[in-house]
Design brief:
Length: 156
């Protein structure tokens, strides 16, 4: 009976340390990709960070796949960064100082490699989100995500 009483007394304290429903809701974000046209980019938020979703064209995919690894400061194959070649999902935070790179909206500069450009210190990312030029030390991060349907992803 003492063990049961101790468990009954300790359980509310231990349970209060679990994340709240609001925090758990922020842990993942479901995104419907069906309205995104080829060549279009959208931004969503996950854990308070912008996430860039890019429906890449055949030309963008080809450009990303043909880059020699010895030209990359942080070498990663394009196919290691995507689950489906046409969909690129990235955390939209520059790996240099945490700025948000340009290139998501129509008309914004996309840098020398057609990806994203961080104007704060001049980092250029390619169509796979890999750093190509500038002070950023790493590629744009690929968040954990999965396809729950053909055109629906779950980030987180």
């Amino acid at each position: 009976m003492g063990v049961v009483a101790t468990g009954a007394a300790v359980w509310p304290l231990a349970d209060s340390m679990n994340p709240s429903a609001e925090v758990l809701a922020l842990a993942s974000t479901e995104v419907d990709l069906s309205p995104v046209a080829e060549g279009q980019r959208i931004s969503v938020f996950w854990r308070g960070k912008p996430v860039f979703v890019d429906r890449r064209t055949a030309e963008q995919i080809k450009a990303a796949e043909e880059v020699p690894m010895d030209e990359l400061p942080d070498p990663q194959l394009d196919e290691a960064r995507v689950q489906k070649p046409e969909w690129l999902v990235l955390v939209g935070v520059c790996t240099h100082l945490g700025c948000i790179p340009l290139g998501q909206k129509t008309g914004e500069p996309r840098g020398e490699y057609g990806g994203w450009f961080c104007p704060c210190h001049g980092s250029h990312y390619d169509t796979s989100g890999r750093i190509r030029k500038g002070p950023a030390p790493l590629n744009l991060e690929v968040p954990p995500y999965s396809f729950v349907e053909d055109e629906v992803i779950l980030i987180g």
